[in-house]
Amino acid sequence: MKILIVRSWGKTAFELGGYCKNAFAENGHDADLFTYNDGRISWRFPFLVNIERTFVGKALIKKISDFRPQLILVIKGDEIPLELIRGIRDKFKIPVADYWIDDPGLIDVSQKISPAYDYFFTNDPDAVQVHKESGCPRVGFLSFGCLPDLHKKIQLSQEEYEMYGSDICFAGTVTEGRIKVLEVLSDFNLKVWAPRLVYSLKEKYRIEKNKIPSSSPLYSKFTDRSVWNEELVKVYNASKIVLNIHSPQTIPIMRDFEVTGCGAFLISDYARSLETMFKPTEEIICYKNIAELKELVTFYLSHPQEREEIARKGYLRAHRNHTYAKRMEELISFIEKEKT
């Protein structure tokens, strides 16, 4: 099958689009990418917004005409005008699907988008019915995964261990809820791979950023930069414990699968349906509260054999059941089933 992946301009959607392309190729499909970015110029010159949007829309139409896909898969797509999606469906008469990755946090946004698509895949199983009631008749659940060519165990040099290693690491956006958890671990050998900023979600999805004061016990724990792709894999491989904090999300996120895919030891808070994907106490470790988290960290830092065995089992589970090749199989199977 020929599949065109349209990814929005944004770090996560851009990255995930590449993962899906590789996964489709692994499954024998002919996949190509189109990056939709209608703000490259107009973010600096707002008066050009309509001109740039028209130009990028025409470029996408041309790409579809030249490539002639049998399926278009949009990654997230909140920046893509819905009238463009509807126009593509009318013009080309081929199915257009969306792989949405921000439910339930942005359910108010996604339920306005989903009716414009032939197929809508949400990362939250509880949101499936919401999207059906919003007007999209064909809605499926599709979680995240790992990409074994990237998310894997690797050999590090001594210099890389010194650069990336720590007893505990957290890599990701630091929110108000997450900073409270990290503060409890400030006495440990902790590295937080993120800018020294705390993000807060305000009304109308406005993001507020506040700097971490130099007086904070966490200030020195921050690397003051983010890590992605191959460098993130080095961080996971060099760390004894990788911490996942789902807040503000309440369901499994990319980190659950990427950490285990790298063969790293994952300690996570509980998330809805996480136990259906990994076996707590056997493949990952979950904590119920901050006090238990501190106890678990202390225990597993002093019990490397138990830690490594759990990490090994999590790695096997991730590479057996939770790859993007498996996810794209699920997506195609859902579409084929809905056609019949």
Automatic annotation (TrEMBL):
This protein's name: Spore protein YkvP/CgeB glycosyl transferase-like domain-containing protein
Domain annotation Spore protein YkvP/CgeB glycosyl transferase-like: ranges: 223-332
Highest taxon of the lineage: Bacteria
Species for this entry: candidate division WOR-1 bacterium DG_54_3
